[in-house]
Amino acid sequence: xxxxxxxxGCGIAVLMLVHKDKNQAQRLIDHLSKDFAVFVHIxxxxxxxxxCSENVFIFKKYKSYHGSFNLTMAALFLLQAAFKIGYDRYIxxxxxxxxxVSNTDIINFFKNNNHEYLELKxxxxxxxxxPMDRLISYYPNNFIRNNDxxxxxxxxxxxxxxxxxxxxxxxxxxxxxFYGGSQWTNYTHACVEKIFQYLKxxxxxxxxxxxxxxxxxxxxxxxxxxxxxxxxxxxxxRYIDWDNGPESPRILRKEDxxxxxxxxxxxxxxxxxxxxNDIIEQIYRKIE
Length: 288
Hints:
By secondary structure, this protein is α/β, with parallel strands linked by helices. Helix content is 35%, strand content 16%. The chain folds into 2 domains: 12-130 and 175-287, Spore Coat Polysaccharide Biosynthesis Protein SpsA, Chain A; 138-169. It has helices spanning 22-32, 69-85, 103-110, 133-136, 150-169, 189-201, 205-209, 219-224, 257-262, 277-287; strands at residues 12-18, 37-42, 56-59, 89-94, 97-99, 115-117, 121-123, 178-180, 186-188, 231-233, 238-240, 267-269. The model is unreliable at 1-9 (pLDDT under 50).
């Protein structure tokens, strides 16, 4: 493994997906980059400008539409960029996340820790998430969405309708076991090395997932279950409130603070300063 002096601590790389709110993202990057290397992928559609520094690496390669395979590719791209340098630990977060313990606590948690921390459920799951439909239906990858112009709304609806009909006529085959869970994960260097070795030896897997809705919640879990010799803890170390309401996951607020801190998590999501900035300030006061 390469020298990790740029990663700080035990050699941690934080991989961050960013698509909005420059100030929120920049503050998080500034905080984490004091002790970790931070690899940032900005949605190619965004005009955000993030400051570079010695420990911060900025990329803008994919249009990261929600639900599209491009989100998986963006995460894979960051993982590859960090892997080329070499770190002990790779942590995937979004810019709407926050650490809920200090950087030192994160370093100490992962020091001499060879476990992989992620949610890992065989599909179909008892609770029905991730849904089996994702594996048999086709979903657009590069598509127009969240655009209020009538033409693009019409184009997206036509695209979805055609793929829906095609999925009914020729549903995708369930050609193996599939696993899912949260896309926010924590891998060792050995695990990432085996992921890329698996992809090298199984080139068809990219095409298998290319038309999968929210493939970022299935792609890595499915690969990892094909890899032997990993010590997996079924916990992604995130506090997330899946209230099944309109926000899903729920945007965290000041009244959630005690639950977050008592959760024994390293990170929490998601936060929005336009909804409740007080909780963000409260957490930064604790961790800085």
